[in-house]
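Ex. 9. Protein: Permease.
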Amino acid sequence: MAVLQKLDRLMATEIISLTFVITASLSSIMIMGKLPRYADFLFSAPESVTTFLMLLLYIFPNVLKLTVPISLLLASAIVTIRMAADRELEAWMSSGVSIFRFAAMPTFLGIAVMLISLFSALFFEPYSTQQFNKFKWIQTRGVVEAVLANTIREKSFIDDVPSNEKVNMSLYFQKVSSDKSEFKSVFMGIKPATESFFSVLVSETGSLKKTQNYGLPDYVFSLQDGTAYAERESKETLPELVKDHPKTFYFSKSISAKIDMSQFPIPQDLIVTEFKDMDISLVNTFKSKFKTDSTFSGGADQLYPAAYIQFLKQQIENSPNWKNDRQVIEKYLFILKQVAVPLSTLFLPIIGVCLGIQDPRRKQYGVYFGIGLVIFALYSSMSLCQQLILNFIISPLSMLFVPPCVLIFIILILLRWRLRHPPSTGFIAFVRDDLFKIKFFTKKD
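Predicted structure tokens for Permease:
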């Protein structure tokens, strides 16, 4: 028993230390690969150092979820290769240690890493997303306060509002109170890059109030007794309008009746809406300036498991035919994938041990090639399963079972192949008592 405990301590020490080193290296590489997409966010932020640290907090849990399982697989294989090269593996074989007992500590580490990965995916990741959103809110509030202090002025058009690059905005105030909280004769023009015309808001009076939005400070721009004007592309084509309104549209005698009407501008509809009160959250309006990755769930990714399940139940209740609703299925898949990746971690160290049992006289290139194939098989099975689910071919719950089943199948194939191609004569005795009892592993004459 004491000897086996020594084996467990030896493997645990080496696998844990290697897993830590490999995780740190892979995480650093992945974080550096992700940072360029946040370049605009970093350079536009008022405090770059604080923003960088908060960005790391936001990225790290997602990276950790991917790198820890891969690191554990690599560490288990490398430690087993090292033991085979130093003849330690052969010594343990000759002492009667079974392959299942040899894989006991890697399996225990797999369970521990699975639990840590589950905690990271279900709790740490939502927490980091919440904190990052709060941080963006605080940054945006600073921009809004700067706009209020330096931009708002009366009797002149204001075109230097620091809004999103994809939106042009113009403001005009006929009269502004001394504390910049009351306005008269307000004009606001907004033109997204996707639109051809400005949408215009005109109101007789307006006010600016500091309030709370989900417990966070916000500035609400209120407009009273106003009108909104917007132009949109007409649903009717020019030939249809000419046909339906012959008295309004007519051709000059000098224009041929067979003229190609596609040469004329596309008709536009003017939409006029009168309103009594309109509230605009300035923090939400300017928040797009600090936009990072968007998620499908519209903020549901920052919910803890209990809250997310409640959110999912509401989505299902609102969609009676939810099994054929792609958006609901995507939300369902999100939480299942958060569980599926950590669950698969349980089997990776066993695969690493199976791959690492090698003849020390041979090159070890095949081990690393096999590790690459295992990683490819894991994530490609998840991707294929996801596509089949989104096409309503299989049940969403398949995401929990397909990846682990793929890894279990790989373990069985590796053990069967290694039994038929043993690295040494001692390996047969090493596995005979455990595996020959299973017909799948019995050698054929």
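Check your answer against this statement. The CA atoms of residues 247 and 288 lie 47 Å apart.
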